[in-house]
Amino acid sequence: FKALRNHLLESTPKSDHKAVLKRLKEEQTRKLAILAEQYDHSINEMLSTQALRLDEAQEAQCQVLRMQLQQELELLNAYQSKIKMQTDAQHDRERKDLEQRVSLRRALLEQKV
């Protein structure tokens, strides 16, 4: 930048130096603004890419958790079915035992009468 400025100042008359310096300063400011805008755009693009990767990671984790939840639900249903069958069998055994006791007592009472 300094070399360009010095070259332009040497090649222009002294009366135009202020205008040349002002034009160079404006051009430098404009280029810095463009560079800052590109920098902000690059940062925003990187952040959106990072957010997208995070969303993909969250989606994968969600899928894994859904599968795990489904497996646990199947295990729970199997366990509940097993417990229900065992409980029903226990009730049947107790009912038969009570029916036998009742019929035995009824027979004893009928013998006494």
UniProtKB/TrEMBL annotation:
It comes from Oncorhynchus mykiss. Signal peptide: none annotated. It is an enzyme of class 2 (transferase). GO terms for biological process: DNA repair; regulation of cytoskeleton organization. Keywords: ATP-binding, Cytoplasm, DNA damage, DNA repair, Kinase, Nucleotide-binding, Serine/threonine-protein kinase, Transferase. Its EC number is 2.7.11.1. It is found in: Cytoplasm. The keyword Signal does not apply. It catalyses: L-threonyl-[protein] + ATP = O-phospho-L-threonyl-[protein] + ADP + H(+); L-seryl-[protein] + ATP = O-phospho-L-seryl-[protein] + ADP + H(+). This is non-specific serine/threonine protein kinase. InterPro entries: TAO_STE20_kinase.
